[in-house]
Amino acid sequence: MNALQNFFVDNLNGFSLDQIPLFLFQLLAAGLSAYIFQLLVNKKMGEVVVEYAVLTAVAVALLTAVVKMNEPTAILGAAALILFLRQTAQSKIEAIGLVVVVLFGIGCGLGSVVLTGLGALLIYAVIFFTPLKK
Questions:
Q1: Spatial separation of the C-alpha atoms in residues 77 and 117, rounded to whole Å
Q2: Is the full-model pTM beyond 0.90?
Q3: Is the CB of residue 16 less than 8 Å from the CB of residue 105?
């Protein structure tokens, strides 16, 4: 039993078992902020501009939390993210939306949930009070 526990702890990549609830909170915060962003932008534009924001933000937060202490994996993840953004964006507003969702994921994945939340509130205010046009 001790060998199984050591194997599990060794494969946590620098995490300790008591950090798992914080990690889950970070994923939840990334998903929630992206959901609100997607809801606001799509309602303001009157059409679906940002899709799969929650999935993207949670995936980026997961990737960020996992590669926090591993530079080669972080570089590969950033390259994959750049390729993803180049292939999926159809318009400027959609590209900006994807970047904002990715930033929510990175901020929450790094553990800066409060700062990311404050930034998200500022972005929500900009969306709410300014006109968005294609």
A1: 23
A2: no
A3: no
